UniProtKB/TrEMBL annotation:
GO terms for cellular component: axoneme. Pfam families: CFAP91. This is Cilia- and flagella-associated protein 91. It is found in: Cytoplasm, Cytoskeleton, Cilium axoneme. It comes from Loxodonta africana.
């Protein structure tokens, strides 16, 4: 077609200008005080520019002809000059495995199956028995059952509350340290934090101290044993007092924050009440001033008559 014409930069600028100056973006915003006024100097509404844009902000409004002209010039230069190397076009990552993964999936299409008339009957299909190949010894056989531990390792869902703990056997004349932590369970001490680590360290110190105590059968060391136990008891009570003091400090801090928040809320409510009262008095004042002005104007007109 010799009369084929495409839009140019001038047409693009003209379309942008028309879209900017369109009157549909002007919104009539009524004025509350002069909503029912018919006077010119007291308009009922004002025209405001609507800031909402139907075009998303990520869409470029620039003319795309420059980029096409640049690519065409580079193609002509590459065709005329063999030494010229075309720059490689860098395409944006489609993110197939990321946020754009849903774009590469589609619901399967099931064609409509026509119903077979009752007058048509097909011959029955008889499948030949399948012959299994001989078992190969290259790969180990897959067990038909799974243990509880295997199910826990390969479970995908999160319906299980506590992790699986395998059975154990304790050697004779041995007390593993791990068994002393049997009271710690998942969600109640596990995963271990700073408090749990400090508790474990105190338990180790206490076991070391118990190993240094004199035997009960030794009557000569009875007084020493009593003094050591008394000192340990005082130490335990001092530690408990420190823990109680820490809890009291935390509760006191929480109480201070709650009181501060309540005071801020009360101040905010008082400020709102004061603002509402001030607005009410201001409206009453303006109403009185307007009434006085109207009376003054009416008296002035009567005097002129």
């Amino acid at each position: 077609d010799p009369l084929f014409i495409v839009s140019s930069e001038k047409d693009h600028a003209q379309a942008n200008l028309q879209a900017t100056l369109v009157r549909n973006k002007l919104r009539k915003v009524p004025r509350f005080r002069t909503m029912f006024s018919n006077l010119i100097h007291y308009p009922r509404y004002s025209l405001n520019w609507d800031k909402s844009d139907p075009v998303p902000p990520f869409i470029s409004r620039e003319w795309k002809g420059y980029e096409e002209q640049r690519k065409e010039a580079l193609r002509q230069l590459a065709a005329s000059d063999p030494s010229f190397q075309m720059p490689k076009e860098v395409y944006e990552d489609p993110e197939v495995t990321g946020k754009n993964r849903y774009k590469y999936f589609e619901r399967p299409f099931f064609p409509f199956c026509k119903q077979i008339p009752f007058t048509i009957a097909y011959s029955p299909f008889r499948a030949e028995p399948y012959t299994f190949p001989p078992a190969s010894t290259k790969y180990p056989p897959i067990p038909s059952k799974c243990a509880v531990g295997t199910q826990t390792d390969y479970r995908d869902s999160e319906v299980q509350t506590d992790p699986y703990s395998p059975e154990y056997v304790v050697c004779q004349d041995s007390v593993p340290e791990l068994l002393t932590l049997a009271t710690l369970t998942w969600g109640r001490g596990l995963p271990a934090g700073q408090a749990e680590v400090e508790m474990i360290e105190r338990a180790r110190e206490k076991r070391t101290w118990e190993a240094t105590l004199p035997l009960l059968t030794d009557t000569t060391q009875y007084e020493k044993r009593r003094r050591m136990m008394s000192a340990m008891e005082r130490k335990e009570w001092a530690f408990r007092e420190q823990e109680i003091q820490k809890l009291q400090d935390i509760r006191l801090e929480v109480l201070k924050q709650l009181l501060k928040k309540r005071e801020e809320n009360q101040n905010e409510v008082n400020m709102k009440n004061l603002n509402a009262q001030w607005s009410k008095l201001q409206e009453a004042k303006e109403a009185k001033v307007a009434k006085i002005q109207r009376a003054h104007v009416s008296e002035k007109e009567e005097w002129r008559k």
